[in-house]
Amino acid sequence: MKHKLLIYLAFISILTACSSNDDVPAETVSLNFTFSHAWQDTEVTSADFNDIKFTNENGQQISIERLRYLVSSVTLTHESGVVTTLSGYNLVDVTNGENLSFTTASSILPGNYSNVTFRFGFKDEDNTDGVYQDLNTANFNVPGMLGGGYHYMQFDGKYLDTNNTEAPFNYHAIRAVDRTDPNNLVFQDTSFEVNLGAVTIQSATTVNVEMDIYQWFSNPNLWDLNVLNTVLMPNFNAQLMISANGAANVFSLKSVTQQ
């Protein structure tokens, strides 16, 4: 914490020195994120849920019944090289239209940022079992037999199986756990960082992020729901595949707006 404080103070000193009036430090501005969702080029909202109307890369028809996911650790890299990581997290709940936007807990200094990133899920040191009351209330916990902590995503729906019959899928993302020895669980952090690229922040800024839901089933792992549909949480390899697909190109920067 002391190290982060020293970095932040150094950052303030750099930008303040560039001010036309050395006696007046640069003012901080708010940073807001909004999340929209699409199936390739078609917008998706909760109004599209519970209807088999989407076709994945493997040619399987599906519906979406629930979609919510966790983002955390917004990090900004200034063009000077100073890195600022903001605390806080947000549970984006597409199903109920909740938390589709959030403002970071800390304001930031205006400037040109070479990279703006956030994390999908929690990194291991933040993924502490039971400590986030709002996530507990939302039943976003991971069972103790799988190591506890929290989900990264709950994505549920139905698909048409080989008999053209509706069957459920639960595409849930968590920290991967190898339960070969139930008394000695082996974990792998499958959260991932999403790099939105360069962003210029001049005033109160909204960063608009889009999730292409289609991509969860596409690349680099072509997803066959007849094989991988439910009970994916204790499946170590399935969690690695979910993480790889998410990190590839599920999220992208749609636009940046300034007030």
UniProtKB/TrEMBL annotation:
Query: Which UniProt keywords are present, listed alphabetically?
Result: Signal
Q: Which PROSITE patterns match?
A: PROKAR_LIPOPROTEIN (PS51257)
List membrane-spanning regions.
none
Signal peptide start and end residues? 1-22
- Name the source's superkingdom: Bacteria
Tell me which residues make up the Copper-binding protein MbnP-like domain.
30-222
The protein here is known as MbnP family protein
- Which species is this UniProt entry from? Pseudotenacibaculum haliotis
